[in-house]
Design goal:
Elements: H1 2-9, H2 11-14, H3 20-32, E1 41-42, H4 44-51, H5 55-67, E2 71-74, E3 78-81, H6 86-105, H7 115-129, H8 133-149, H9 154-171, H10 177-181, H11 185-196, H12 200-227
Antiparallel strand pairs: 1-3, 2-3
Length: 230
């Protein structure tokens, strides 16, 4: 399988300090990239062999990712990449709204260090120009992570990383990533420009509307896909 061949390439990343956390990092990245789509059963033998790790190490990595809600254990069936419910998607956006709006509200006085946020916007624009819509999705994820990183809190960064990793499970199910992500490129630009002007309150309002619209669009597209409705 192409997925396992690609995973075998990651074996070198483990080096001599192979740990469950490092294995979890690799699998988390592969899940985020869509190599293991939602609903996929993860074979201990195949993945353990590709990475060259013990069954106990792999099981611990699975446990960590299950705790992050990326995997689920089904009794007598094995470990699977989670398939989110529509309620899960709505709850993720509720959490995002609390985190992201709170970060913007607490930024303090300008100027703000926006270089990395602006770089994520530029990455999205380049991906759109190349019609690489999954690349646009990735750039948008980076935009929101860098926005939250302005708070300078490792704990908030970790929470946001986990929330966005889970959200990507839904993105991989939707058929039209362009429709889902392209409209937000111009809104990303607006947020950066408004933050650069120091208008923090306006940014919070822009971001709240942005997240509400993004939630509604994803719930509609995702709900049709997972329920089979037209």
């Amino acid at each position: 399988m192409d997925e396992l061949n690609a995973l075998a390439d990651d074996r070198a990343l483990l080096g001599r300090t192979s740990t469950a956390e490092r294995v979890a990092d690799i699998l988390r990245s592969r899940i985020a990239e869509g190599f293991f789509p939602p609903g996929t059963r993860l074979s201990e033998d195949s993945i353990g062999g590709a990475l060259g790790v013990s069954r106990n190490t792999l099981r611990e990595a699975f446990r960590l990712l299950t705790h992050e809600r990326l995997l689920e254990h089904r009794l007598n069936k094995g470990v699977f990449v989670r398939v989110l419910s529509v309620h899960d998607v709505e709850d993720i956006y509720r959490t995002r709204r609390m985190i992201e709006c709170s970060v913007v509200r607490s930024l303090g006085d300008p100027p703000y260090a926006l270089d990395r946020v602006a770089a994520a916007v530029a990455d999205g624009q380049r991906a759109a120009k190349a019609r690489e819509w999954k690349g646009v999705s990735t750039a948008n994820i980076h935009f929101h992570r860098e926005l939250v990183a302005l708070a300078g809190s490792e704990r908030t960064d970790e929470l946001m990383r986990s929330v966005l990793a889970e959200l990507r499970l839904a993105f991989h199910v939707v058929d039209d990533p362009r429709r889902l992500h392209e409209p937000y490129l111009v809104r990303n630009v607006k947020i950066v420009e408004t933050l650069a002007d120091g208008r923090r309150d306006e940014v919070e309002a822009l971001l709240a509307d942005y997240l509400d619209d993004s939630r509604d669009g994803l719930v509609e597209a995702y709900g049709q896909k997972v329920t089979g409705e037209d």
